[in-house]
Hints:
Number of strands: 20
Largest sheet: 10 strands, mixed
Low-confidence stretches: 1-44, 65-82
Helix content: under 10%
Distance between the termini: 43 Å
Radius of gyration: 33 Å
Number of helices: 0
Shape: globular
Strand content: over 45%
Mean pLDDT: 80
Amino acid sequence: MLLGCVRAPNVPKIKQGEITLIPMVSGTATMGTSAIILTPAFQDQGTLLPDGSKTMTPIVPTIDPTYLVLPTVTPTPTIDVGTMLLRIVSPGPMSKIVSPLELIAHIAPGYTGVTRIELIGEDGAELYRRVFKTYSNIGYYTRIDEQIKFEIRGAAEIARLQISTFDSSGRLQAFNSVRLLLQAVGENEFYPANELNDRILMRYPKSGDEVSGPTLSVTGEFQPATDLPVVLELVDVTGKVLSSKFLQFSPTDGKYQQFTTSLPFEVLVKTPVRLVIRQSDDRISGLVYLFSQEIILSPK
């Protein structure tokens, strides 16, 4: 490792008989608050040649280890970013829509299961629903293009457009939604879609990790969709909740907020579960967002 160099100044040679003595440089090389001391020294011993001169063997300065302090680097776990299980590409939040609504959504690669598209009115009434099978597309996202016809009672109302996926055990795997303003007449007015990254940026655990009891530590960053509490839970293949906890974040400001918490659990054998993080809508009954990933719990 190159710690730093100090260039030697032009030092005159000192002659003593036939032996040339070259003084070594006394100096300090710095790195942060640490210092490397080069100790002055002369080479006064060597091999005597027939003409009476001596060969010089250079002395390599030593480093006093008490002055050598290297910075300590603590590795930081990486964050899973950019892996959005479900993304509503269009329409964006609070777009003004006249029937029919044109939905474009992307489903993450490798997903196989049941997908559900729904439009929920301001009073919780279901204005539209379609359920279909999604097949795995390794290496690229599945694109959903859906034309949704709807009718509303008044001139306009708030609604929630949502898309969700279920795994082979029937558990909700992912859920995403966008709030819209539906209009009986008028013109469409579209706003940009949400960011490409998911609302949850998980540091630990990673998908597929095996964790020993009695507790599971969970660390990451979350971007709340509402000001309501967030639910963190462990769900087994039968749908049973093995452990759960409420997390309260600061008021929604569109930024990610760091969190660290733990979930106690008890299992007798290795148990595959889904680690779920979800949040409810604060205006229309139901979910606004859900993310999950599979991990394995082991006895302590």
